[in-house]
Design goal:
With 454 residues, the protein is an alpha/beta fold. Helix content is 38%, strand content 13%. α1 crosses α3 and α11 runs parallel beside α12.
Length: 454
């Protein structure tokens, strides 16, 4: 990794928006020698950052922030100061879907307006927010041109995985597309201080498209895995066995395991891609079908669970139900609840089990967030499963596949059922206590039902 020379002209950087994307980038840039000013409108977030404390979980981030703040390599403010020293602005604000299902661009528009009021001759602006095709050229560029100065503009999509950001920002190739060749080269030179590989593409639209296509492709792949799960459940065989055995030593099969698919990117990026293409007169097909397959899974799964326990003799009208794994994913670990499929699963459960008592456990998510989710937080697996009649494993955090499920099941209510969205265990190898069953997504036909004398 290169070390930033003090004479490097673009060493003063202003990162606008300190969510997951912005803060991790700001920290890594400061760590390699850039002088970074982080701008975040939320006062409480800025106050904590000044103490070296991030507002989300990311391995190694707090230690790095504390060191950088102490060295004055990074500073945090709510607004761009009038006499800002930066000559590079990186826009990383969010682009969530609005109530109408379309991407909100108001934050990008606002931040572009703010930057234009501070833009100086020769400054570089980099957009890192995920946006529909053409947004950088149609919205950001005209807003910056109001400054009536010469500047460079590039789109460089973020592509880090939550839980591995500090490593991936230093290893993964960065995509760079500029409004001009000069803009592309300049932005590429900046990112070469972070990672050994920078990929320059022809224009900003190509860079915008790469981000959306990458995430949509992942969503399509996960959707097909979930389609395989539905097929195997109908046939009565194990999707886990079909997928694992089918790709073992066979280089042309790369199907992931089925499971809930959400998160801050996959829940919206396919829609952002479709929205941009619809404006060009093209309707996506596979992309949106795949997203809908993943979105219907909570409804289908909970409906099946309800029908299963309804047939169990003695299953109570007021069951205790524990939801385990609330973050949108467990590997790598995160506490991010944005776009988590635990939310629609919980909504479906409340519809089918309106009189249940609900608990929540997550290996990373704070108790206050679990409580705000609408669940009674419990601090460990034993408490989550004690006297529970229905336990749902909803993400793939290692704590679940490593837990002593046979021992923990002894404390469950009777009859009790463990429903595993991630196939953490193989039903045929489990020796569960009488009255407790185990069932996994895509392997319903191989389930252990909670019957006496099993």
């Amino acid at each position: 990794m290169l070390t930033l020379d003090e004479k490097f002209p673009d060493r003063y950087v202003c990162v606008l928006g300190l969510g997951y994307v912005g803060l991790t980038l700001a920290a890594v840039m400061a760590d390699v020698g850039f002088k970074v000013l982080g701008v975040e409108i939320r006062e409480t977030v800025v106050r904590d950052l000044r103490k070296g404390k991030a507002h989300f979980f990311e391995p190694g981030l707090d230690d790095l922030l504390e060191r950088l703040v102490e060295k004055k390599q990074i500073k945090f403010v709510q607004y761009i100061p009038r006499q800002v020293r930066a000559n590079v602005y990186i826009i990383t604000v969010g682009t969530p879907l609005g109530p109408n299902g379309k991407a909100r661009l108001d934050m990008v528009d606002h931040m572009s307006r703010e930057v234009s009021q501070h833009l100086k001759h020769g400054d570089l602006v980099i957009v890192r927010s995920t946006m529909k095709i053409g947004t950088t050229r149609r919205i950001v560029l005209p807003m910056l041109e109001k400054a009536k100065v010469d500047f460079d503009l590039a789109f460089c999509p973020e592509r880090t995985l939550e839980g591995q950001a500090m490593m991936e920002l230093r290893q993964l190739p960065q995509i760079v597309g500029g409004v001009s060749f000069r803009s592309s080269v300049r932005a590429a030179q900046l990112f070469q201080f972070l990672t050994p590989t920078v990929v320059r593409v022809s224009d900003i639209e190509t860079a915008e498209m790469i981000k959306l296509i990458d995430n949509a492709q992942r969503d399509v792949s996960f959707a097909y895995a979930n389609e395989v799960a539905r097929i195997c459940d109908r046939v009565g065989i194990s999707a886990m066995e079909v997928i694992r055995a089918g790709k073992l030593g066979y280089p042309r099969t790369h199907l992931p395991m089925p499971g809930p698919v959400g998160g801050p990117c996959l829940e919206k990026d396919p829609y952002i891609l479709a929205e941009g293409l619809r404006e060009l007169g093209l309707e996506t097909e596979m992309t949106l079908i795949s997203r809908r397959i993943n979105e219907r899974q909570p409804r289908e799964a909970v409906s099946f669970i309800h029908e299963t326990v309804r047939r169990l003799k003695g299953f109570p009208a007021r069951p205790v139900i524990s939801l385990m794994g609330l973050a949108f994913k467990g590997r790598p670990a995160t506490d991010d609840l944005r776009g988590t499929m635990a939310k629609p699963i919980f909504e479906q459960l409340k519809r089918h089990f309106p009189n249940a008592t609900y608990r929540g456990f997550d290996a990373v998510v704070a108790a206050s967030q679990i409580r705000a989710f609408g669940l009674t937080p419990v601090s460990n697996l034993e408490k989550a499963m004690r006297k529970a009649h229905l336990v749902l494993i909803m993400n793939n955090h290692p704590v679940f596949s490593a837990m002593p499920v046979e021992t923990l099941a002894r404390g469950m209510g009777r009859p009790g059922l463990i429903y595993d969205f991630w196939n953490s265990f193989t039903a045929s190898t489990l020796r569960l206590p009488d009255g407790v069953g185990y069932m996994a997504l895509g392997s319903h036909g191989k389930a252990i039902l909670p019957l006496k004398g099993k």
